[in-house]
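Let's practice the habit of predicting before peeking. Look at the sequence and jot down your guess about where helices and strands might fall. Then scroll down.
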Amino acid sequence: MNKQTPIFVIARIGYIAKGLVYFMVGLLTMQTAIGMGGETSDATDAFREFINQPFGSVLLIGIIAGLIAHAIWRMVQAIKDPENRGSSGKVKFMRAIDFIVGCIYISMSYAAWQILQGLNTPDGDETTEVWVERILELPFGSWLIMIAAGLLLIGGLYQFYSSWYATFESSFSEKSMNEKEMGILRWLGRIGVAAWGLVYCMMAFLFYRASVTFDAEEAGGLSEALSSLRDQPYGIWVLGITAGGLMVYGIYLFVLSYYHKVFDEGFDASS
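Done guessing? Here is the structure:
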């Protein structure tokens, strides 16, 4: 296969849509951090912002298509491993994560579709609280939430590790980039991935708090995690830096949609 095949077109559209969503989340949150009003945001809030723009319905339809495209791409990564990451236990685990992420983006596209239809759509925090409440009602439910908090913390620490060592650059197409372009994309990735590290760690703290208090309202998704960052010492600065990092992450995804190595090198679909 080559970069002109349908799956690669789908993958590129997906990266662009994902980048646009998280750039908007960062932008809305930045407005909160610098005192321009509003609250911290998540993907659902970004969808609502898109629909309020000129030609918003057309824009949101494009976003929905892009999120579905990204979901398909992540599932292809899980099943076919187009990046040839190998067959180690770590890689198998990452491929399982890819499949789960694909399912998450299908869910996000459905939420965007509901907003397009004018339906009342719960935001990420509300959805998270509902699921945490259901889990807390189970035997050993608080321990399950504690485990989820631990996994989120591990995810956050891994984001910092990935940011420091730029492990994500294995996805870059070296033959399509010069050293300067590689350096710029590497730093975009480092900043964006580090911002996600902060978000994941704060989400871990929220889940931990929910587990020890048996209160689902203590948990939360992206928006609540960002809001909690604001409540910390020097919180406005931390929130502003994180919001900027999410915007940079969106830009990183835009650029990666062109410079991802697999789009140039292809892979054998029959493998």
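How did you do? The first helix runs from residue 6 to 33.
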